[in-house]
Design brief:
Layout: H1 2-29, H2 34-41, H3 48-58, H4 64-76, H5 90-125, H6 130-144, H7 147-161, H8 174-203, H9 206-213, H10 218-256, H11 261-270, H12 274-302, H13 304-314
Helix pairs in contact: 1-12, 2-3, 5-6, 5-8, 5-10, 6-8, 7-8, 7-10, 8-10, 10-11, 10-12, 11-12, 12-13
């Protein structure tokens, strides 16, 4: 196991290096001069002399390899640069907005678990009944509806028409309900379908019949044997989905004016704030690869066969 983890950590560094190259290159290929945009945002006449002076100050006149070298060396030292728009360190800007994004992600994750697990289990246990048909219909609709459209529908019914919940901002727990539902319901549908399919496959295996033959109760068979073995594909998807939940907050935070990193990213993209965009993409990529590593390690605790396989690799 230790050797396997070391291999994945080394692979992580190569992935992050590739992501840094792609991020740096793609951001600098986008149209528009950030120096000119920044001057206009500050209400300053963007004369060629003023633009050139600002470009020199920001280091934008240096060759791209030199700019990349300066940027990546600062990143490795914990300096993510300074936001062109606010003039503050990017690390402070992201750190200030990180709690709001984490709060929304955790709430969305709770929605996913509270909706998908009971729905998937019930659909599998009561296969081809009314409960199963309702669950599959919800899963189909939920997986087909875009998150931004779902958010607008929830706003119309729960905030505008019936005035049950606030629409925008962050404050009371009520402000969290609509963004969390928008973020989590679509993914809940996907998980419910995945859990149903996995449970039906496990319930048809011989060891389930053997457990029933030993006199175990149906709840013990379902929860202690079938559900535990059906978790493996869900853990794989859940590890990836946590990253997608963080990334999905970009749309949700924009719709509900949630003051998180996603909303800040959208403003930075329109303002050509390179430092913020690069730092956000690197952060999301790092979270993705770390989550993938944790998912792989968790396999060994869920499925004993994975422990044996990884032990064989170490030997």
């Amino acid at each position: 196991m230790f050797k396997y983890v070391c291999k994945r950590v080394v692979f992580l560094f190569f992935v992050m290096f590739g992501v840094s190259l792609l991020t740096f290159g793609m951001v600098h290929l986008t149209p528009g001069d950030p120096a000119e945009i920044l001057l206009r945002m500050e209400g300053i006449n963007a004369t060629p002399e003023a633009v050139e002076a600002l470009r020199e100050k920001l280091g934008l006149n240096n060759p791209l390899p030199v700019q990349y070298g300066h940027w990546i060396s600062k990143v490795l030292g914990g300096d993510l640069g300074v936001s062109f728009e606010t003039g503050r360190p990017v690390l402070e800007e992201l750190g200030q907005r990180l709690p709001a994004t984490v709060e929304l992600t955790v709430a969305g994750t709770m929605v996913v678990l509270l909706v998908s697990l009971p729905l998937g289990l019930l659909s599998a246990v009561y296969k081809n009944t009314l409960v199963d048909h309702i669950g599959r219909f919800f899963a189909l609709v939920g997986a087909s509806v875009p998150s931004f459209w779902l958010g607008l529908i929830l706003i119309y019914f729960l905030a505008v028409k019936y005035q049950l919940l606030p629409v925008m901002g962050r404050g009371s727990p009520a402000h969290l309900v609509l963004p969390a539902l928008t973020l989590g319901l679509g993914m809940s549908a996907t998980y419910a379908r995945l859990l149903r399919a996995s449970m039906l496959e496990i319930l048809g295996l011989d060891f389930i019949q053997a457990a029933r033959a030993r006199g175990l109760t149906e709840n013990a068979v379902l929860l202690g044997h079938a559900f535990k073995n059906a978790l493996l594909p869900l853990v794989t998807a859940f590890g990836m989905s946590l990253g997608h939940l963080l990334g999905g907050t970009v749309i949700v935070e924009t719709i509900f004016a949630w003051p998180g990193m996603g909303h800040f990213l959208v403003d930075s993209i329109f303002g050509r704030d390179y430092a913020v965009v690069q730092s956000y993409v690197l952060l999301m990529a790092f979270i993705f690869v770390i989550l993938n590593l944790l998912v792989d390690i968790s396999y060994a605790f869920i499925d004993p066969r994975m422990r044996v396989a990884k032990k064989g690799e170490d030997q």
